[in-house]
Amino acid sequence: MKAIVNVFLKDGVLDPQGKAAHHALKSLGFKNVNSVRIGKQIVLDLDATNKDEALKEVEEMSETLLANTVIEDYTIEIVE
Question: Three-state secondary structure along 40-66?
Answer without folding.
Answer: EEEEEECCCCCHHHHHHHHHHHHHHHH
